Amino acid sequence: MSDRTDEARESGGESPPADSEQLLRLERQLCFVLHATSRAFDTLYRPVLAELGLTYPQYLVMLAVWEHGERSVKELGQSLRLDSGTLSPLLKRLEKAGFVRRERSPDDERSVVVHPTEEGIALRERAGDIPRRILSATGLDEQQLGELHSALNSVTSALDRAAEEIDRQD
Amino acid sequence: MSDRTDEARESGGESPPADSEQLLRLERQLCFVLHATSRAFDTLYRPVLAELGLTYPQYLVMLAVWEHGERSVKELGQSLRLDSGTLSPLLKRLEKAGFVRRERSPDDERSVVVHPTEEGIALRERAGDIPRRILSATGLDEQQLGELHSALNSVTSALDRAAEEIDRQD
DNA sequence: CACGATTTGGTTGTGCACAACCGACTGTTA
DNA sequence: TAACAGTCGGTTGTGCACAACCAAATCGTG
């Protein structure tokens, strides 16, 4: 296996070098499978959550709200990695469905606090068996689950660092 | 950003018996991190692909078209797990951008075949270094990459089987 | 041939996601 | 006090994703 770095091979180069082909294939497969996994999760959750009247991102928001009692839009955005352009209409739909209420904080009128309604709290009970159903669908035991979780976590933080690096260059 | 507040708060060394709370936490974290990883990939690709005038799903389509020379809409939908409601407008945008052409197959007038234009083929050269840039950003070596790939793959097929099972019950 | 079922892609409607921009509020400084 | 920069949500525009529905082409059987 030659390990030479291929640069300065540009205009007129008809076929890319072989290891570049290999890298392209690897990257392609990782993209594909990550997208596919994300879509598969969504497909599995969709009918289950439809019984509760929630979409998958709405479910993620409810999980955060259930756990913390109340959350500002800013906090939700940070932990779920969503910006206000996504959260604002989503929260309005959740409010319209009767699961949460949104109120300006008295302390800081810029901030909007989201907390569950009675109905939203009651929903938690009905959602109680979802984790078990989903986890059993993955076919993973607790250890494999943990490994996948930490693998994805480390990839994510690596990607975050890389994105910040690119950001810094501008 | 990159606050990582409530993640990894309680991933201590011990593993207590997996009660319902524990399961909920695991499920929550797996959902979150998968979504987060998907989003992080998207964020990293976005500026890189913007130089080429592509979005991430458009890039996936171009990868498939580059590899096979030409693909029907049906084939694209199968390999990328997208339906026509997503692909049709996406392919129109790619055609408008001048990267592909769409033509009814002479053999079967129902089928639409997508193939790259000259400009689309030329784009492949300009996209040549993307895999290396992305892969180095992940901070994974070839073996870790393969492990993650196969882990995601097995999860995806387990989820597919589970979804089919649910489907069959209706 | 005619009839009906299937395949294939397209359209419409709803919702998620981000970038770019805006307006209101807050804390600091002059 | 007035001016200012920074924070926080919201709005608009573009694109992805799916469900539900539709039209044309094809295939199968009588």
Q: What is the annotated CATH architecture of the domain at 25-130 in chain A? A: Orthogonal Bundle
The stretches of 5 or more residues of chain A where confidence is low (pLDDT under 50) are 1-16
Order of helices and strands of chain A: HHEHHEEHHH
Largest interface, with Cβ-Cβ < 8 Å?
A-B, 65 and 70 residues
CATH class of the domain at 25-130 in chain A: Mainly Alpha
The geometry of chain A reads as globular
CATH superfamily of the domain at 25-130 in chain A: Winged helix-like DNA-binding domain superfamily/Winged helix DNA-binding domain
The largest sheet of chain A, given as strand count, sense and whether it forms a barrel, is:
3 strands, antiparallel
> How many helices of chain A in DSSP terms?
7
Query: Taking strands numbered 1, 2, ... along the chain, how are they ordered across the largest sheet of chain A?
Result: 1-3-2
Mean pLDDT of chain A: 81
- The value of Rg of chain A in angstroms is 22 Å
Q: Name the beta content range of chain A.
A: 5-15%
- Topology, number of strands of chain A: 3
**Helix/strand structural class of chain A:** mainly alpha
Assembly status: homodimer
Distance between the termini of chain A: 37 Å
What does this structure look like?
2 copies of one chain form a homodimer. Chain A has 170 residues and is mostly helical. Chain A has a domain at 25-130: Winged helix-like DNA-binding domain superfamily/Winged helix DNA-binding domain (Arc Repressor Mutant, subunit A, Orthogonal Bundle), CATH 1.10.10. Chain A has 7 helices and 3 strands; from the N terminus they run ααβααββααα. Chain A has helices at 18-50, 56-68, 73-80, 84-96, 118-126, 130-138, 142-169; strands at residues 71-72, 100-104, 112-116. In chain A, strands 1-3-2 form a 3-stranded antiparallel β-sheet. In chain A, a hairpin with a 7-residue loop joins strand 2 (100-104) and strand 3 (112-116). At the A-B interface, helix 1, helix 2, helix 3, helix 6 and helix 7 of A face helix 1, helix 2, helix 6 and helix 7 of B. The structure holds a DNA duplex (30 and 30 nucleotides).
